Amino acid sequence: MKTLVRKEMRENVRLAALGLVIYTLMLLSQYREYVVSPTNISQPLADSSLLWSTSWFCGIFGAVLGWLQVHNERRPDLWAFLIHRPMTRTGIFLGKVMAGLGLYALVVGLPLLGFIVWARLPGHVAAPFEFAMLRPVAAYALVGLLYYFAGMLGDLRQARWYASRALGVGVAIVVSLLVSASPESWQSLLLILIGTAILATAVWGGFQSDGHYRGQPVWGKAALTIALMVGCLIVAFMAAMLVSNFLPRNQLSGTSSSYFMTTNGTILKSTQGAGRPLEIVDLEGKPVLDEKTGKPIDPNGFNRRLGTAASLEVEQDGRPGDSTWMQRDLSLATPWRATQDTLWYYWSRYGRLVGYDVATRRCIGSLGPKGFARDMAGSGDRFSDVTGGAHVRTLATATTVFLVDVEQRTIRPLFTTPEDDPILAVHEIALIGHGRDCAAVVTKRLVYLLTAEGKTVWQIPYEPARASSTVFQLFVLEPPGQFALWLSPGGRWDEEARAKHPGHVMWIARDQGVLRSIDLPALPAPHYVPRFQEKLLSVVTPPALLATLPVTHVWVWGTGIPRELLLLSCAGAILVCLPVGLWLGRRYQFSIAALAGWAVFHLLFGVPGLLAFLSVQEWPAREPCPNCKRLRLVDRPQCARCGADWPPPEKTGTEVFAPLQAS
Amino acid sequence: MNEQPVIRTQGLTRYFGARPAVYELNLEVPRGGVFALLGRNGSGKTTTIRMLLGLLEPTRGGGSILGYDIRSLPPEARARIGYLTEEHQLYGWMSVRECGEFQSRFFPTWNDKIFRGVIGHFGLRPTAYVKSLSRGERAGLCLALTLAPEPELLILDDPAVGLDPVARRALVESMIYLTRRSDRTIFFSTHQLPDVERVADHIAVLDRSVLRACCPLETFRNSVRQVRLRFAGTPPALPKIPGLLQAFRSEGELRVTCVHYNGATEAALRGLAPVQMEEMPISLEDAFISYLGDRGEKSFILSETEAQP
């Protein structure tokens, strides 16, 4: 094994060196970009450009390395030279993989390690660092392993390049996309592990049978089929979308209603539907008329009347946020503000603003509720974490909103609440007529609007109609001094829930408090009619995937998966894929178990499943049986219909056979 | 001595698409000696060898090699089988010495003396890189790598293909040297009939995917006969003769090559009333060419040739 590993390493060392140079240059370019702009307020290790370059490099390098490791020996004689040695094929596979992974680790790990060490050492990067920031880049480096195995599989498979050979890369692509979209890091890790296991098993199976499907162990066959099914899904999706481009584009189908607020505080209801004009009525259901023409207002007139709002969201206890683990890891230290000679970050680890000197690139201290400290932690005093919205002036603790001055490295209290009424959210907003530096503060019981100096413009009771009402929209109305506060369900609530609980609205006047408030009437749940393009996509989507999407909270359609689409997907599987699969299975004399297994597969995976089935199977030729004259498979010793053996070769009368004696 | 055949196949068949490359091959290779597998290009020799070594899945049928099922050859079986591939491909970036070192680590029975002896026989420098070697030198290196583990069974797939006469001779000499060990079996495919004549004990002939002959070399040689019949005028049309391979008709002469020549054949030929009938000596190469060439009668009579469309 060691010998094989060494040989593989040496054989691919040139590619590794090339990869090392390319990735090092990519990281050096990141380094240069950072160094030439000293006031760049970012942590290069948590920068999207590092992730972008790493993900592309790891994907391409992994695929090329895997492909080349097999391709080097793909000529039949050299392959035979490799395989024909006292070693199991599993051993040969492991030797190649160990060498490949070793090279991959070196090529990706060494430059990255150098980059991390550079960024980590004080005096190089004027930004906070913590190891959790490395998890996104590590995830993309791991995703490269999937491309590595996909590359191997692509070259190992005995299939045509223009057909199914490259389909294995589909698993890697899907995992790449899902890794960044997963809410939690363990889910991403699990996806990477599952994807790697599928592709590695498919490659291992390919090694057992020289890349053929026939002769593979059952696990290899299963993994290969799943890998190709995912690839087929991508191809089928792309084909369906391509076809859709040639079709006339439909307008939004179905109907949906929403409430809007005008600049004078009137609430209007608009209803939009396929083939219907925009219908705008007031809360009593009367059409809104244009004052000049006396006709129902058109969309332009409606848009002109709409008020603008500043929004903020209050997080509910125990409810996970909308962001992914990757977004959270990349924003562990949020750039706060840059002065001429300092850079300031809000570092959630310490709950403080941490400052760095631009010239020395070293930490100069931190700002907490108790003021400036020379170290990062101060005396343990910390702000509440920054959540959403723009924060450039204020930070808050549970009871106090502070005005932060990073130039002077001072803070001063702007607003204080009692301990039993803690602050839930602060949002800096610019309100016309009220200055650019206003702040909306939401406490457990009250909502405040503060001026830049901390003076209360108004305060009203926070009276959420229901727990889901966590989004605040603050409208500044006409005439000046009039406001409206609109509470509605938070971002994670789907459209159906929004229709059911459209909101609670309060009209507020300066110095007078709440003038009136209402709970808006429930709206009809949006009636959604899928368009032709979506129907086409659903036909090529596996029924199993469509059925599990709602469970996995992957919302493709705002209102969930319409039953019609699920039915279309199932119909495709039942009416097309299952009969075709069964017909082929019978034609090629599959065993009952194989027929049943493939039938379930076709039902679960529909069109991509059928395509994968067609891709993996190697169809033996059929010849007429000399006995019953019906077509029989050449790979079966007996005719399935008459049980006859294959006839011996026809005699020519020139045969020379004689017993052979051992020497 | 173990009398079990080292190679045995039963109905071994391989299709490529709808075309059979090897059809219902039933073959037994006895232990010891040199066994030559002969056939024209595309007759299925390489496919047979690749199936025997588990490098190609048979479409149907099966077989055993050294008692192991060819569909699942374990490492211990591979350790006992040396295989020289047709194209003599090796890792171009390795030197001759590195090739030996690489291979030696896998084979516990590696004999470095043999390796050095064979590369010396071919005049190879240990420091030379594989990519810089000529085809003959590469063949020599491949042979050294195959022989050094001292395999019990040596399978050579057309080892002399592309070699010049000197390299070919060196290769044959190596094979003769190897057969000094009585328990060693050499199974090789080739087109080089002089080589077969020099080293082979047994031959098998594949003709268009089908095994047509499997016998000791001498039996084959004795089975194929050529007879010259002289006539006063144009030779008469040839009646149906069992075992007829080829017949050449020319002015006043008919030359007949057939297999299984016996009294009945002789009687059928005498029935043509030749002026003279004599048996001609035939070389193995001619016998083989007659055996594998186009069957039937060919006319070299000018008037008949011109009359043909």
Model description:
The complex is a heterodimer of chains A (663) and B (309). Chain A has 16 helices and 23 strands. Chain A has 663 residues and is α+β, with helices and mostly antiparallel strands. Chain A has a domain of 56 residues. In chain A, the strands form 6 sheets. A 5-stranded antiparallel beta sheet of chain A has the order 4-17-18-19-20, with no helix packed on it. In chain A, strands 5-6-7-8-9 form a 5-stranded antiparallel beta sheet, with no helix packed on it. In chain A, β2 and β3 form a beta hairpin. In chain A, α2 runs parallel beside α5, α9 packs antiparallel against α13 and α15 crosses α16. With 309 residues, chain B is α/β, with parallel strands linked by helices. Chain B has 2 domains: 202 residues, P-loop containing nucleotide triphosphate hydrolases (Rossmann fold, 3-Layer(aba) Sandwich), CATH 3.40.50; 87 residues, no CATH class. In chain B, 31% of the residues lie in helices and 30% in strands. Chain B contains 11 helices and 15 strands. In chain B, the strands form 3 sheets. Chain B has a 6-stranded mixed beta sheet with strand order 6-7-8-3-9-10, with helices on both faces. Chain B has a 5-stranded mixed beta sheet with strand order 14-11-13-12-15. In chain B, a hairpin with a 2-residue loop joins β9 and β10. In chain B, α5 runs parallel beside α6. Chain B is elongated. Chains A and B meet through α1, α4 and β23 of A and β1, β2, α2, β10 and α8 of B. β23 of chain A pairs parallel with β10 of chain B, so a sheet runs across the interface.
